[in-house]
Amino acid sequence: MNTGNINRRQTILNASMAVAQVCAMGAAYFFIYAFLLRTIGVEKVGIWSLVMASASVNRVANFGLSASVIKFVAKYAARDEHVTVTKLLQTALISVSIFVALLLSLFYPLAKLILPTFLEPWAIPDALSILPFAMISVWL
């Protein structure tokens, strides 16, 4: 078997998995939102969405680190340098975790001040009760 054929099969497999992932995530979101709409109602889904979106702004914090990590993991894995790959992944995980935790700790008091400008007064207690969980999910 030639390497061109193997590369073509791997490319098709990778593309198929990417499509499957998008379809699975779409289906998951569909069922999650359907469940949330039935259980907590439209208004609270709106509050939940706003809080999650505001907390997710901190995802910009990785500054493209994940793309760089993917590139170098592939490079070192191709050379069978598994120890280097492990060190790279550990360093990236620890660095991003600490940096995002710092950003979220700065963002929390700011979010408590900003959310009232976007929400009705009756919705603020719900938003503030969701905020810590949203921030933890962003960090994780």
What does this 3D model show about the protein?
The structure is a single chain. The protein is mostly helical and 140 residues long. The chain is built from four helices and no strands. It has helices at residues 3-56, 65-78, 82-118, 124-139. Helix 1 runs antiparallel to helix 4 (124-139), helix 2 (65-78) runs antiparallel to helix 3 (82-118) and helix 3 packs antiparallel against helix 4 (124-139). The chain is flat.
Please tell me what the overall shape is: flat
- In angstroms, what separates the terminal alpha carbons? 42 Å
Q: What summary fits the major beta sheet?
A: none
Q: Roughly how much helix do the residues carry, as a percent range?
A: over 70%
Strand content: under 5%
Low-confidence stretches: none
Number of helical regions: 4
| Overall average residue pLDDT | 84
List the secondary-structure elements in sequence, H or E. HHHH
How many DSSP E strands? 0
Rg from Cα: 20 Å
Assembly type:
single chain
Class derived from helix and strand content: mainly alpha
